[in-house]
Amino acid sequence: MRYIPKSESFDRRGQGEKLYCIIAGSAVMVTGRYFDGLKEIRSSDESYDEQKAVELWETSVGLTL
Question: Are 11 and 4 in contact (CB under 8 A)?
């Protein structure tokens, strides 16, 4: 089971669903997926924007130099 740090902004609604996803995810090694409750969903449209990905990469590189 993974450690979940305490957060003052932790949303108490849906804790059972979040805990289930964490436990189920660690049991079957689910990574890189997004969930709304127990339902797997597609990532946001913005996450598929290749131009934004390039801009983010270039900005990140610039910040590490």
Answer: no
